[in-house]
Amino acid sequence: MTMKTKDYLRDTFRIAVPSIIEHIANVVVGFADTMMVATLGTVATAAVGINATVTWFLMAFATLFAVGTTVQVAQSIGANNHKRAKRAAINGLSGGFILFTIIFILIFFLSPHIPKWLGAESEILQDAVSYLRIWTIAIIPMFLGRTASSILRGIGNTKMPMVVAFFINILNIIGNFFLIYNTRVVTIPIIGTEFTIWGANLGVTGAAIATSLSNALGGIIMLYLLFNGSQIIRLNLKDLFKFEKILLKHIFKTGAPATGQDLITETGQVLYQKMVASLGTIQVAAHHLATTAESLSYMPATGFSVAATTLIGQALGAGKKKDAENFGRICFILSIFAGLFSGIMLYVFPKQLMYLFSKDLAVINEGVGALRIIAFVQPLFNATIVLTGVLRGAGDTKIPLYAALGGMWFVRLISAYIFINVLNWGLKGAWLGMLLDLSIRFIIVFYRYIKKDWLNAKIIVDD
């Protein structure tokens, strides 16, 4: 029996909507986090902002096991081979634990030096070092939690990651409320009652503690759900570290290019951030705040990308190429419409978005120009995110890697350098480089998608 368009849409939204809500929750907390830190001033905002590149760079290593394991689990579930899906999950978590422990040790001891390498000015250095070191403490449970979330998504369960995201995000905001600010007296306007709210007055350090604790707890909860919840492939602790060479090979084959894609992007971001840092503290703050505001623009695309990876992986695992093709097409079309809407919002309301985070007019004006530039590429950027999910579902992760390499290293960095240092276009020049980068990535990934080679990917679900 063939599926109708409404069936494809139903399944797509069933997977995508919880993922979109989860991303909205993450973005809202990112907004709240940024606004709370921004009340401390431009220096504090820049101290957190300069670490954003580092944290995203490190997240790339979580992608190795998150993506690789998701694809293996989804394809195995599609083939109705639940035992293999369980073994893939165990191998992904076990391998991840070893890698993430090594990363934690390295970054914890290097954290006093990294912000300086990124070009942090002396006025923000102390806060930047404090934030990074505290954030690093949660790496192991946080990254394992990302892998666990991806396993659940591969099964088709996107609701649990959504619920956990809501919980830890609320916890993060509460932590910020008590840890960032000093003890203060608050008055309820209507009844005029005053009461004292305790505060630790830790500033940037308080924000780091709240973020680290909530991330660690979120990871622990996700792992608990996999090992103790009522999932299709409930895992057992006694099976951990029972490595299987063939399964690990498949996980690495899919996950390594995805990690390479993120590493290429984030390594480039380090150099890109240094270019922005050379413009001054105001530009660093504006860049960080504009990037946070822009994260609104790809919320739907992130959800549709998750849906594409899960549904296409399961369809190809079941040998249903036509279903895989239709899911890919629907997710792609939805991403274009979402990108058009978000692009209009960024172009029409950039000042309002920037004003959410800062009252510094210099910072706001810099951010407005950046957001209006990037608004034009939102349909292509959203489509690239979704098409990457389409290709990942088929295990085809190399083309997005090549797209990232070409876009970041041969387009963004070169053009941004020229725009900033030769033409003196400032922060707008940096964001013009980003626009060109994202455009090139779309062209490369879209070409791969329309060739349809991914539909003929070799699917192994019986080893």
Automatic annotation (TrEMBL):
Multidrug efflux pump. GO terms for biological process: monoatomic ion transport. Keywords: Antiport, Cell membrane, Ion transport, Membrane, Transmembrane, Transmembrane helix, Transport. One of its GO terms (molecular function) is antiporter activity. Belongs to the multi antimicrobial extrusion (MATE) (TC 2.A.66.1) family. GO terms for cellular component: plasma membrane. This is Probable multidrug resistance protein NorM. The keyword Transferase does not apply. InterPro entries: MATE_fam (IPR002528), MATE_MdtK (IPR050222), MdtK-like (IPR048279). CDD domains: MATE_NorM_like. It holds the Pfam family MatE. It is found in: Cell membrane. It is a multi-pass membrane protein. The chain crosses the membrane at residues 12-32, 44-67, 88-110, 130-148, 160-181, 201-227, 330-349, 369-390, 402-423, 429-450. Its main location: membrane.
